[in-house]
Amino acid sequence: MTLLTKNILFKKNPRYYKNYFNREYKHYKVKDGWAKANTKPFYNSRRLNTEYKTNNLLGNLIGFVPLGLLLPLILPWFRNGFKILFAGFLISLGYETVQLLTGLGVFDVDDLILNTTGAFVGFILFYLIKLSLIRKTKKAPQ
After folding, report:
1. How many helices (H) and strands (E) are present in the chain, helices listed first?
2. Residue 95 belongs to what H/E stretch?
3. Domains in the chain, number
4. Which domain holds residue 79?
5. Which of 78, 92, 98, 141 is most buried, taking the most CB atoms under 10 A from its CB?
6. Smallest Cα–Cα separation from 39: which of 110, 91, 114, 90?
7. How much helix, strand and coil, in percent to the nearest 5, is found in the chain?
8. What is the pLDDT of residues 62-116, one digit of tens each?
């Protein structure tokens, strides 16, 4: 979660945020952030260059894979694909909402979709590893 927070909310150096919150934040209005928000799935991606699209796609997917892999490993309650989807969605929605409320980024529904997908990909990896380990223990001579 610390790495996600750093990579999503605090990409720049600490001096930038000190200046932002001391000078600019008091003038920020959520209405302005909402005007910049992308609420149409995959709408803005048509206008972006290929390198940015690739980095955005991979960054959002890969960033949430560890969440989908580690949550079911640490907390058995999350050993259900729907629960991981929901958790990935809620955590991503939390980050996007903080970006909207603080102006530290732009609310983007594409990020929400990609982050949630990344969490689910992590869960699929968890499940495949689990199946692989179960098969190995069944095949092992006793």
Report:
1. 6, 0
2. helix 81-102
3. 1
4. 2-139
5. 92
6. 110
7. 80, 0, 20
8. 999 999 999 999 999 999 999 999 999 999 999 999 999 999 999 999 999 999 9
